[in-house]
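We were asked to recover a plausible sequence for a given structure. The inputs and outputs are reproduced exactly as logged, with field labels preserved.

PROBLEM: sequence recovery
POSITIONS: 138
GIVEN STRUCTURE:
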């Protein structure tokens, strides 16, 4: 019989997840990819949600990564509408760019990762809307 996964709060995930580190290693090393696309996506979505970021902004950044690359996107003055969210995202993009180097597949993975973050962020927004809550959950 499968074990029941332990319940973790948003704060638990954030406290135990170094998103930049996961990007540095998960984009180029297969064994860490599950963590990057699991806890890394959730931690990034929670972080950006708490900074009042809308999902379509993150999805748009993913499109910029696909067309311009990680280095180009990381150099944007404000990749997201708010300065605080932009600064956080820029840290992640720089870590991803350092890891990816000239690896086109790693850049594509980074764009897919951002799309996954946007999806989870959207699910969080939808859940709050369905349950009549307007504030950020924690």
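RECOVERED SEQUENCE:
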């Amino acid at each position: 019989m499968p074990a029941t996964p332990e319940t973790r709060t948003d704060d638990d995930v954030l406290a135990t997840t170094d998103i930049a580190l996961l990007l540095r290693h998960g984009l180029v090393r297969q064994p860490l990819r599950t963590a990057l696309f699991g806890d890394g996506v959730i931690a990034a979505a929670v972080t950006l949600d708490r900074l009042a970021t809308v999902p379509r902004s993150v999805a748009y950044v993913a499109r910029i990564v696909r067309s311009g690359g990680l280095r180009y996107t990381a150099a944007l003055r404000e990749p997201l509408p708010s300065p605080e969210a932009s600064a956080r995202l820029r840290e992640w993009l720089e870590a991803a760019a350092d890891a990816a180097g000239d690896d086109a597949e790693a850049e594509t993975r980074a764009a897919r990762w951002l799309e996954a973050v946007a999806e989870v962020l959207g699910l969080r927004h939808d859940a709050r809307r369905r349950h009549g809550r307007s504030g950020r959950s924690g």
